Amino acid sequence: MGAKIFPLYYTRWMLALLIYLLAVLLLLFFLIMMSIYTALLIYSSLKGSPYVPTKSKIIEEIFAPAKMKKGDCLIELGSGDGRMLRYAVKKYKVSGVGVDVNPLLVFWSKLVAKAENLVDAEYKVENIFDTDLSRADHVYIFLMPELIDKLVVKMKRELKKGTVVISHGFPIKAWKKIQFHVYERRPFPTYYYRIK
Ligand SMILES: C[S@@+](CC[C@H](N)C(=O)[O-])C[C@H]1O[C@@H](n2cnc3c(N)ncnc32)[C@H](O)[C@@H]1O
After folding, report:
1. What proportions of the chain, in percent to the nearest 5, are helix, strand and coil?
2. pTM for the full model?
């Protein structure tokens, strides 16, 4: 009788232990992923701008004044989860590149672009100060004012005449004279500049 009960008791005990170990492993995995995610968010902030995505429902209004055309090149500096470039590629048939220092966000952007078969949307892990801007017809930024101030010199040097720079959130103070539009919206307005 005792010999018959023991294996059943033993099996249940083993099963409980296995479930417990699995739960611990899952929790550990979750904690590690959260730590990596948080560390990369802090890294983004340290590099000049925290990760705050542009609201999806206003992308259309943001891009409309830029009048993008099929075949134009859009460069997004600090591309986050890649939503802006993806939208422009789908809606306006532009091609372009999004760069971000956060590898997790770039990995995600690539994954979604691949899933949606958007071959014209390229994403790279790159510092905005290393990106070649010479072929851009449009540049989209949503960056902190201090980072924008540093970026102005590079944009002025590399962008060709006629390029439209869209700055969501904060104005490019030095470019007041070439600003041609502002989309007023709280909490973040959007400013538009055309290179002369
Ligand atoms: C406010 S978020 C904007 C994200 C995206 N453009 C959007 O509108 O949804 C700023 C992004 O810039 C990235 N970033 C910050 N400093 C950077 C740098 N020096 N070079 C490249 N990317 C940077 C951050 O990782 C973050 O994803």
Report:
1. 50, 20, 30
2. 0.88
